Amino acid sequence: MARDVIVACDFADAKTTLDFLDLFEKNSNTGRKPFVKIGMELFYAEGPSIVREIKSRGHKIFLDLKLHDIPNTVKKTMAVLSKLDVDITNLHAAGTSSMMKAALEGLTREDGTRPLLIAVTQLTSTDREALENELLIKEPMEEVVMSYALNAKNSGLDGVVCSPLEAKAVHDTCGKSFLTVTPGVRFDDGEKGDQKRVMTPREARKAGSDYIVMGRPITAAADPCAAYFRAVREFLED
Ligand code: C5P
């Protein structure tokens, strides 16, 4: 799959989401449809029907449910998700290699095809202090992230969610074809919000991000279509 800009549709219901996506139908004469990220909020509110609806409109989908449970439960859940025909889905690498391998088995359809499967290493909301005092992990954060990324790669996964600041190190550790999907992207003249360590789309491209995930800089923009096409230009073309 080619590199792309993924729009995080962090909305509470189907109507708001579909009204938002309608803007792109009305305002785009390029035929380009945003790659959409559906997270827990929207999925738990609306269920699989919202995935089918967005897919039927021709969007690619990253279903961001971050599974983390015993291997058997994750395997059976991934088998259910594989029927939704999403393009990317994910889990927590903290679930360990046996869970990641079970997930891949569950996700793989009878004909051998499957969505891409990527792992969350450490959430960017987990800081050094919480890592050490609550998770009782003493190694430096970067070492933990790279070790989890390597576990994901060795379990057969396709990539990781990480900060664009970690994309180069992940590629150096796990290889160029191991995907880096990076949130924490902001325009150089935009609000950072609660994202602390950010890069612009252009910087993320230079850092080697394969996919950038942008939510509020696009969803909360006065002109979401203009913001989306700016991100596409900066990430893919400039
Ligand atoms: O609005 P914003 O651009 O900050 O949205 C980023 C998206 O990426 C959100 O859906 C957020 O949950 C997700 N995300 C993140 N950091 C991570 C993992 C996921 O921001 N480490």
Biggest sheet, open or closed, and with what strands and sense? 8 strands, parallel, barrel
Q: What global shape is seen?
A: globular
Assembly state: single chain
Query: Which small molecules are bound?
Result: cytidine-5'-monophosphate
Examine the coordinates and then state which fold CATH places here, giving the name of the CATH topology: TIM Barrel
The chain-level structural class is alpha/beta
Low-confidence stretches: none
Q: Identify the strand order in the major beta sheet.
A: 1-2-3-4-5-6-7-8
Specify Rg, calculated over alpha carbons.
Answer: 17 Å
| Fraction of residues in β-strands | 15-25%
Mean pLDDT value: 95
Give the C-level CATH assignment. Answer: Alpha Beta
Give the tally of structural domains: 1
Beginning-to-end CA distance, first to last residue: 20 Å
SSE order in H/E notation?
EHEHHEHEHEHHEHEHEHH
- The CATH homologous superfamily is named Aldolase class I
Count of individual helical segments: 11
The strand count comes to: 8
- CATH-scheme architecture: Alpha-Beta Barrel
Helix content: 40-55%
Provide a concise account of the structure shown.
The chain is an alpha/beta fold. Helices cover 45% and strands 16% of the residues. Cytidine-5'-monophosphate (C5P) binds next to strand 8 and helix 10.
Describe, in plain words, how this protein is organized in 3D.
With 238 residues, the chain is α/β, with parallel strands linked by helices. The mean pLDDT is 95. An eight-stranded parallel beta barrel has the order 1-2-3-4-5-6-7-8, surrounded by seven helices. It is built from eleven helices and eight strands. Cytidine-5'-monophosphate is lined by residues 8, 10, 39, 123-124, 161, 183-184, 193, 195, 213-217.
